[in-house]
Fold Putative nuclease HARBI1.
Amino acid sequence: MHTLRLLRAAHNESVWLRRQKRYNYRQTMESVEDMPELLFVEHFRLNKSTFRRLCNDLRVHTSLRGSKEIPLKIKVLTALNFLATGSYQRIVGVSQNLTQRTTSRCVRQVVDALNHPTLMSKWIQFPQTVQERSLIKEEFQRKYNLPGVIGCIDCTHIAIVKPSEEEHAFYNRKGYHSLNVQMVCDHNLKIMNINAKFGGATHDSHIWSSSLVEPYMRHLHESGEHVWLLGDSGYPQRPWLMTPILNAPHGSREELYTTRHVQARTCIERCFGLLKTRWRCLLRDRVLHYHPKVASKITLACCVLHNISLHAHLPAPSDIPVTTVDDNDDSSTQTTQSTTTENRNELIRGRAMLNYLISRL
C-alpha cells in the first residue's frame, strides 16, 4: 500500500511538472512582440496589428474567453496556425505545447467565435445599397468592359472525411467526399456571400436556387435595377444571372461577350485560389477530419479571415497554385433546366436581358 502511494505521488508530481512546463511556455508565447513580423505572418497568416484587432473583436463581440492556463491570444494563435497549415491538431498542439485535446478545444472555440453573427455580418456582406453596387459595377466596367456586373458566383469543393450519415450526399463526381460551397466575390476577390450547407453531390444550380442571394437578385431586377452576377454554364440563364454563350460564332458580338465574361469570372477562381492557399486546411489534399457541420463552420471561419486579410492589405502567399477547374465539378456541364412554365418564362426573360447586354458592348 505504501508503495502504491509513492507511485501515485510520483505520478501526480510528474503530471504537475508537465502542466507547469506547458503553462510557462504559454506565458512566453503570449507576448507576440518577440516574433519577427514576417515569421508571424508566415505562421499565422495575419500581421500582429490585425491579430490584436481580431482578438479584441472576439473578446468584445463573442463569448470566447481565455483562462489563466490558456489566454485568449494562445487560443486564437493555435486556431490560426491550424487553419493556415492544415496540419493535424496534434502537430499544431505540439508547436504551442498543447495537448491534442486542448488544441481541438481551442480550434473549435475560435471557429465558433468566428461564426458569430456579429462577425459574419461585419465581414461577409452582400452590397445592400445602390451606392455600394454602383462602385462594384464601375470597377467591373473599368477592368473587364462589362456593364452591370456586381459579382461573380461559383462553387468549390472542400474535401472532408467520409461522413457516417447520408454519405451519398457528400460523394462528388470527382470521386471523394466534400462540401460543395457556393461563393460570390467582387472585383477585389472579397467574398460577399457564402453557402456551405450542401454536400459535394449537390449540383451548383440547386445550391443557387436554395440560396438567399437568388431572391435578393430577383428583387433588385424586379425593382428596375439592371444588375447581374456572372456564373458559368452550370447555372441557369436568368435576367439577374449571366452565363457564357457556348460555341459563339467567331468574330461575333456573342464571342466578344463570352470572352469578356470568362475574363471577368476569373475573379472567383482567383478568390478560391487565394482562400485555399492562405488557409491551407481547405486544400484538396488536406481533408477536414470533421463532421460536415463542423467542416462548414471551419469554411465560414476561413472566409471571414480571408476578408480580414484583404481589408488589412496583407500580401498573398507566394505559393498560390495556377487556377484550374478541378474543384468545380460542374463548370463544363449544362444545368438541367426545369420544364415549369415559370422557369421557361425566366429563361426567355434571361435571354432577352442577355441580348440587351450584348447590344451594349
